[in-house]
Amino acid sequence: MANRKDLIEVMKNTLRSSGLTYADIGRQLKLSEISIKRGFAQRNFKLDRLEDICKLVDLELGDLMRLADEQETKISSLTIEQEEELIADTKFLLVAICVQNTWQLDEILAAYNLTEPECIRYLIRLESHGLIRLLPNNKVKRLLSQDFHWYIDGPIENFFKKQVQDEFFDASFSKRREIKQYFIGMLSSHSISVLEKELSTLQKTFSELQEADSKVATKLRRNVGLFIAFRPWELSTLSGFKR
């Protein structure tokens, strides 16, 4: 949830677009224009006063909170240096993955052998990278956009290639909800474009489902892995016979 200062900033923008002035607000709330001006400048209105101002523009406080959340800057990627920092410390990477899956501090501490002080230190580092915002009582709000991705051929992707990929595919894929399909074929340029769009839609669906399920209790969710790979390719042992 956005903090009070963010709400007041969004309220200022809303008033600007509505044409309502500080003098108008003062008259309707029986306050001086100076006090209204000072409240916006110092961003120190109490919530009940902010709610009164919301009513003047036919806005609920909950609507204002949603607007503030939507306007908050969200990041779609990290820098190379930030990715390197993540994989240099396994515990830091663990906390980052938990947070990416909308876990809160108490859930991380209950599931993993981390102390509260060190976990909070990791959360502060994630906040400095712009990945999260720490709220009162160490509540965590993610600041990742739906199209968040790792740097192409960067530290996290290379970590995946060296360690995660082999472990992920070391399975029979014969159990319930385990799926592995492998296709080789020849397609026209048009069909390749169609397939690219379908894969892009699947990626978007995964992100949307993950965002929707972030509101579901952690104990009702489980970790899953989705691996998508597609490129023009021919088996080297066969291409060697080409004239």
Major sheet: size, sense and barrel closure? 2 strands, antiparallel
Shape: elongated
Strand percentage: under 5%
Q: Please state the CA-atom Rg, rounded to the nearest Å.
A: 25 Å
* CATH fold-type name of the largest domain: 434 Repressor (Amino-terminal Domain)
Helix fraction?
55-70%
CATH secondary-structure class of the largest domain: Mainly Alpha
Count of DSSP H/I helices: 12
* CATH level-two architecture of the largest domain: Orthogonal Bundle
Look at the helices and sheets and give the structural class: mainly alpha
Segments where pLDDT lies below 50 for 5+ residues?
none
What is the averaged pLDDT score? Answer: 85
Count of the separate structural domains: 3
Q: How are strands sequenced across the largest beta sheet?
A: 1-2
Count of individual beta strands = 2
The helix-strand sequence is HHHHHHHHHEEHHH
Distance from N terminus to C terminus (CA atoms, Å) equals 64 Å
